Amino acid sequence: MRTVYLDNNATTQPAPAVIEAMLPFFREHWGNPSSMHAFGGRVKKYVETARAQVAALIGAEPAEILFTSGGTESDNMAIRGAVEAFGGRAHVITSRVEHPAVLEPCRWLAGQGHALTEIDVDSEGQLNLAQLRGALGEGRCVASIMWANNETGVVFPIDEIAAMVKASGGVLHTDAVQAAGKLPIDVRRTPVDMLSLSGHKLHAPKGVGAVYIRKGAKVLPLMLGGHQEGGKRGGTENVPYIVGLGKACELALGRLAGEASATAALRDRLEAGLLRTCPDARVNGDRANRLPNTTNISFQYIEGESILYHLSDAGICASSGSACTSGSLEPSHVIRAMGVPFTAAHGSIRFSLSRYNTDGDIDHVLATLPGIVEKLRRMSPFVRAPAGGR
Amino acid sequence: MWDYSDKVMDHFRNPRNVGVIPDPDGVGEVGSLACGDALKLTFKLDANGRIADAKFQTFGCASAIASSSALTEMIKGMTLDAAAKVTNQEIADYLGGLPEQKMHCSVMGREALEAAIENHRTGGRAKRILEGKVVCHCFGVTEEEIERVVRENRLTTVEQVTNYCKAGGGCGKCKPDIEAIIARVRLELEKRTASAAAALRPKLTNLQRIKLIEETLEREIRPALRKDGGDIELIDVSGSSVQVALRGMCTHCQSAKVTLKDVVEARLREYVEAGIVVEEAPE
Predict the structure, then answer these.
(1) With the CA atoms of B251, B253, B257 and B258 taken in that order, what torsion angle do they form, in degrees rounded to the nearest 10?
(2) What is the pTM of this model?
């Protein structure tokens, strides 16, 4: 059966060129880059090449890039490391719609006696900037505000946010795990102090990521016991994966503009098609400021897990913010923070595309999903009058 | 993905008896859009008072749809007295089991069936209404409902209660109340089994008693305490008097102290000797 993969905000297919670039570092160049012999030592230059490739994607200096195990570690390291370096009680500011890899460390810090403010979003998922401004007025802070949301794709006005935080004298981290490789990022223009990105969201494998730490920004290490990465992140370098991440960043930078518009065109066709063929469907999130690859659509009066299982039977991979799929009993915190009505919250489906999707993929979803929605609605006690007649 | 049985997937993909019976003999509705699942059950009786037909409408996940479909299949042909005795576990068993976190789907089936039978017998409201003390305000679950799932399914942890009836799955503020209900129901259950078991058991030597107490603490008490970073230590046994001390996180926990005597004593009475009295060792 044909697989139509539309869950790229969860993970992406590693690019063939990335895998090719990695293989020699399993087979031949498996030395330790810290070694004092040529066999190991020559590996170091490939790590440094990768560092430059990652830096280039976001307009950073190579020395400002540290390799990590992925987005979660990057987020933890930036937030907890910055608060530890802060000295004394810090005011931590974040948004209600962050990924748990940001929200949980922030809430943990609150439990350790630091102050925490979580900024609201509006019904479009956009950050309440007035509230942020108010919170920034309460003294120097460590803020972590995402570049783009993983569930809705909503992009925050990060330039404006960075300017506000900088003006207040605070430190700003941004979780750019979903933005990196999909949107142009230039830390010379956007004055964030720290930025997280993850390999497997941009066609590198799982288990590798990076954190950008602006030169001069103070961050204490989480991992002790190694001189690697300038003593900021101990542990022998995961060379094959670092090389893979570098290659993936290089590919992403090279095709950024063209890929974004091609993906957005497919996404828009999918979205328009579903809204046209499925009654009582609505898009969640600010459509004017959104990742090019993401759409989050609620099918009212039916439940997300049921939709996903039927889609899966048809070979279509997507995800949902419904309670049953979030592993808890309530819909996703992002959907709830936006105040999406209950009629729609449990039936939200996220489609996230990539460079590998085709018109045929979209055709397959458009031919399949309306029937699933109708089948489930026919079964739902909340649908009184049949829509469109049957 | 959830580890659903083939039977769950079959009933999800090909649900039996979807719809509403016109002019039904009983209607039962439970759940809501806010809760994330809901079920409307209707049935029609034959001339002998047996369920001739049953239909459902469900808003919910794959296992909610499968549980509803299974329920309608199970009750067809039953008398109302027999149907009233269907338990949530029987619905789960019919489906070859449900993931623990999805047991509430089977409970929803049982509740809808009860509401429909009640509606037939008394002409009462088809929609289940909350009666009694509401413990979980997020999901509108009453003390009585929690007691019932604990009793019928022999639940021991708050997490299980959440899996079975959603209580505690929202803001979590009611978790201490749920814990108290579990302790109370278990105590009541254990008193019953303890008195039955004690009559059969031979008298123990002191060494046997100590060994049995230590085994019982290890098996029945410590796992739950350790989950919260605590522990319990056996200090002394003198006849039927048993001294224990709480360790780690439990030392500071008021709820641990309150439940210590009741729960530990009940377990020891059940598994060791009926006359055991538990005391906290002086510090």
Answers:
(1) 180
(2) 0.82
